[in-house]
Each structure stands twice: as structure tokens, then as C-alpha cells.
Amino acid sequence: MASPLRSFVGQTLTWVPTATFRTRYDLIAPDNTILAALDMSSWSSKAHATTPEGTLFLRKESWTGLKIAIYADEQGPLLATYQRNWTGASGQLAFPYGRLFQWSKVNFWGTQRAWTDPTTNSVYVQFSTGAFSRRSTVTIYPQTAELPELSILVVLGLYDIIVKKREDATRASS
Q1: I need a labelling partner for 64 at 20 to 30 A (CA). Which of 82, 90, 127, 161 fits?
Q2: pLDDT tens-place string over residues 11-20
Q3: Spatial distance between the Cα atoms of 89 and 85, rounded to a whole number of angstroms
Q4: Which domains does the chain have, with CATH numbers?
Q5: How confident is the model over 86-110, as pLDDT tens digits?
Q6: Phi/psi of residue 60, each to 5°?
């Protein structure tokens, strides 16, 4: 995992589960290079990611599951906080230094989601996931290449997609 994610601007990357019943995902470049990994093996609310820029730890910080904190390691420091809306369809990622990103559905069915600038609606990173697929394609837009937050956007997008699918499956089975 040596190449920074910004090197793949404009290319289609794919988050792929590593095995049928596992909860680890690898981000694969078009040349089959593994760029990042997300491990959600804990069915609680914790996850660990490895990216070319470093490691990330994600965990739910509220009993409702609507607030997710992103840390550089398990003890901190806090890098960002993601606040989901009550349906899980959208949310806002906030950094301590004031930078904000909006997460929202791009299409009616919610199979396409994107991180955007909340003021200009410029798309930074877009995800496409089939309704019954565990794979997700990722497109990094050119204006995102120099963002220091890029790896967090790429990891948190998949994390939120997986959490939403788990919540939907739990609701459907009850």
C-alpha cells in the first residue's frame, strides 16, 4: 500500500470483500494493486482502516449510532466526527479545524452516494454500489486530489455504506 490515493484521480477503484463471509474489504486499483483496507470484523461499531496515508479507527460515539468518530489510533487524537441523519441516508463530516463535507444520495435508490462540498455541491468522491452487492466502486474527482482528508472520505464512505446495509438487514429481519 505505497501509492497515495491522489495518484488514482479519475480512475475507478473498487472496494472488494476479501472473502464471502468476512468483513474485511480491500480497495483495489485498476492494476490490481491494494491501496487500502477496511476491517469491520467487529460486529459492534468499530472498524480499522489502513491507507497509504496511515491508519484510521472508526467507532460509533452515541447510543443512537448516528455519531461516528474517526481517530488516528485507538486512543486518539480525534481526526473528525461524522454525524448521520436519523435515516442514515445522509450526514456531515466535520473536522476540528472547521472543514466540512456532506454525504448524500446521488440517485433515488441510494446505490450512488457522494462526498460533496456543502456550500458549492462540488463532488469530491462518489461511490456506486449494487443493491445486493458487497462491492463498491469509487471515483475520486480531480478537485479532490490535493485534499488532505481524501483517505478519510474514501474509507468513511464505505464504512457508512456497510453500516447502513447492516441496519437495513436488521430491520428487515425483525
Answers
A1: 127
A2: 899 999 997 6
A3: 7
A4: 5-173 (2.40.160.200)
A5: 766 689 999 999 999 999 988 887 7
A6: -70, 140
